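This section describes the prediction task in plain terms. A model, or a person checking by hand, is given the sequence of a single protein chain and must write out its three-dimensional structure as a string of tokens. No templates, partner chains or ligands are provided. The sample shown here is typical of the held-out split.
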Amino acid sequence: MGADRQTVAELLAAVPQQRPFRFIDDILEIDENHVVGACRFRPDEAFYAGHFPGNPVTPGVILIETMAQTGVVAFGLYLMKRSGETAAGWLTLFTTADEVEFSGIVRPGERVIVRGEKVYFRRGALKCRVRMERENGEPVCTGTLAGMRVPAGDATFQGPETRTWRG
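The expected answer:
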């Protein structure tokens, strides 16, 4: 099942991350329970110069960010719109990454597919099980990611790790 191209265009325009820190090129499928997106890692990305010179590998933190941009940000924007909420004036922040496991690497020029499955969406918070795979279906990484919306420009946001810190 493909995604409506008008909806995809609107979602991609609403995702706040931009180059050089945008890691979502397309949304292939989306509905109230799941999202499938794609990203091709350009060989000229700056991080490849220092992440294993001569043997470049996409950093794991970038892979997690890629999963979050599809599975939390774009999916969250879609779910907000479906529930009648507006994204204007809100920013979606990535809050947690649990049980992230890597089972493969991504090289420059590779295209990955990100699949997110909703665990819950309530009160502006979204939690998803997300997996990344190569175009041929080989797994790259999996995890459970969450995010929440906050008013844009709100410098007082404290994530869950801050609220539970007992220092």
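For orientation: The beta strands are 26-30, 34-40, 90-102, 111-122, 125-134, 139-151.
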